């Protein structure tokens, strides 16, 4: 067993264990992947301020997210096809999050259904909704999430249309994988993934198949998405969905100050500053660069969370220092899941927590609640002078 000390160690194990089409699905951005790359490289431009001779004992990362107590201000982001990275992946990730004391978000495009996850975890989780053209399906899935006891709806607003990811098209991404000579050859080298997959019944889109009339052939995710996702989604529709849901609402995929103000006007418990991990508008600015302006505009009116690019506890600390109340992580936990299942997600969370805790201490802080702009050195042009 290798000694695992970083999120990157888990990524290398994930790459070796999962079929290529699923690892590539995780490790892609859209088009040139500029935004995907800058989501992480922009974190590196921020530096931390070392402080000394301060009492560093009795530290805490405990916080809250939309009123819920959390062990650290980190939620697991919704990730489609998680159950293809590892058999029953959504259940495993939800269990690891629950044990660690952080929220888990189940994607509309998950493999295990809302009901599967609710039955296996017996604890509330967040449910992420993609708005489809089929209104009856949307009404039903909102009711299913309520019935399962989901305690927040995460409404994703940055994917009315799918940003093109070249690798997915070239690999013929599908769930379950289509058995072509190329995929058979690849899967033959991934025997531990395959053995586990043979033991589960969850191998296609559990929230959709059997629930949406249109879900007869979902084998091409990209063409199915193009046909089914609601391209007319607007603020009026968001207001109606908010009413229909009636519970805590998180609006995800906001990258612009004007949109953040509209989100606050429509009413929400939190927004997630995000560019979908660089998977949608290639050429958009990184989420960490956009964060300070959005916090300045709406930070006193709603909880501002951020995601896209977090690969370490230092990154979480930097986001917090720039005003994010908390963060969501996507790939950072999927690597763990793809590497080692539930234990891998726990490992990811432990790595992030430890890095955050020690770094906070070396910056002279003992409580995550006290981490602010003071711990950072920010280059003058960080936010950019864009015309
Ligand atoms: C493989 C993959 C699938 C994703 N699927 C969804 C999804 O179904 N719904 C959603 O709202 N966001 C989805 N996202 C975006 C994540 O929720 C999150 O915004 C992103 O992963 C954050 O960037 P990071 O991976 O750099 O942390 C997905 C991201 C990845 C990597």
UniProtKB/TrEMBL annotation:
GO cellular component, one term: plasma membrane
Cofactor annotation: FMN
InterPro entries assigned: Aldolase_TIM, Alpha-hydoxy_acid_DH_FMN, FMN-dep_DH, FMN_HAD, FMN_hydac_DH_AS
Residues the entry annotates as binding glyoxylate: 25, 165, 276, 279
GO biological process: aerobic respiration
Keyword Flavoprotein annotated: yes
Domain FMN hydroxy acid dehydrogenase stretches: 1-381
Annotated catalytic residues: 276 (proton acceptor)
A GO MF label: L-lactate dehydrogenase (NAD+) activity
Residue positions binding FMN: 78-80, 107, 128, 130, 156, 252, 274, 307-311, 330-331
Assigned keywords, A-Z: Flavoprotein, FMN, Oxidoreductase
PANTHER family attached to this UniProt entry: 2-HYDROXYACID OXIDASE 1 (PTHR10578:SF107), S -2-HYDROXY-ACID OXIDASE-RELATED (PTHR10578)
Family matches, as NCBIfam families: PRK11197.1
Family, as annotated: Belongs to the FMN-dependent alpha-hydroxy acid dehydrogenase family.
Protein name stated in the entry: L-lactate dehydrogenase (Cytochrome)
